[in-house]
Amino acid sequence: MQVYSLISQKGGAGKSTLARQLAVLVSEVEPSLLIDRDPQQTTTKWWLRRNELAPAPERPGLLDLDGGSLTEAVRRLRRRPDGVLFLDTRPAVEEPEAEAARVADLVIVPVRPSPDDLEAVGETLKILRRLDRRAVVVVNAAKNDSRATGARAALSRYPIPVCPVHLADRTVYLDASLEGRGVSEMRGVAAREAADELRQVWNWIREVRDEQ
Ligand SMILES: Nc1ncnc2c1ncn2[C@@H]1O[C@H](COP(=O)(O)OP(=O)(O)O)[C@@H](O)[C@H]1O
Ligand SMILES: [Mg+2]
Predict the structure, then answer these.
(1) CB of 17 closer than 6 angstroms to any ligand 1 atom
(2) Residue nearest ligand 1's atom 13 by CA
């Protein structure tokens, strides 16, 4: 099983959104699993809403560590021949997030294209570099293309790959969140566009992961 951790000090960057959306997208073709390491339990609550759908989708699964060691759990999961695990974390980069970074093949850092968020992400990237973890940045919730392009230009000063595709600011992500779904499971043009950009982001992330 491959392992990806969503990490950023900043709240609201899109960690939980990306963890859930990517987990649903991946689940279309292979097993996918979520672990929620944030006491706010945003992803767990989404998963519980999802479980109330009729019929309740089988994937992604949610693994409750129940106080157990993340490192141990991931060591066991890695023995599985296929599938992808997404680890959602708190808005912090302290020891629990460092552990999530250490057990991951690749860390995904979402960032909103606002000046404040772009400035704050530097600290997250610095800590990840100190931990010697491989990371990528994904611009999330851009109101338009030029904001995303500007953000990518600002991020190019860091020695970390920046995804050439961004996720736009779309209400369909909020609708999906409320319904316990992924955008790839929703109807309509907006959902299709969202699923398409998400797929491109995911394909890029996987390519980077494979460039070992
Ligand atoms: N691309 C997006 N378009 C619209 N809303 C978004 C997008 N990404 C995130 N959001 C919303 O922004 C809020 C914060 O996102 P979230 O994923 O919970 O951030 P984090 O987990 O990093 O704190 C949520 O309400 C979420 O639905
Ligand atoms: Mg969150």
Answers:
(1) yes
(2) 12
- Chain center to CA of 89: 10
Count of structural domains within the chain: 1
C-alpha 185/C-alpha 92 separation (Å) is: 31
Distance of alpha carbon 151 from the chain centroid: 18
Q: Which residues contact 174 (CB under 8 A, 6 or more apart)?
A: none
pLDDT at 212 over 90: no
Q: Which residue type does 170 have?
A: R
Q: What is the per-residue pLDDT across 57-112, written as a single tens digit (0 to 9) for each?
A: 999 999 999 999 999 999 999 999 999 999 999 999 999 999 999 999 999 999 99
Would you say the CB of residue 167 lies under 6 angstroms from ligand 1? yes
Helix axes 189-210, 171-179, angle to 10 degrees: 90
Which residues span the domain enclosing 28? 2-210
Buried/exposed code over 68-107 (b: 16+ C-beta within 10 A; e: otherwise): eebeebbeebeeeeebbbbbbbbbbbeeebbbbbebbbbb
Q: Do 104 and 208 touch, CB atoms closer than 8 A? A: no
Residue 197, Cβ density class (10 Å: 0-12 exposed, 13-18 middle, ≥19 buried):
middle
Q: Using the atom order of ligand 1, give the atom closest to the CA of residue 10.
A: 22
Q: What is the CATH number of the domain that holds 175?
A: 3.40.50.300
195 to 76, 90, 113, 117: CA distances (angstroms): 31, 25, 20, 24
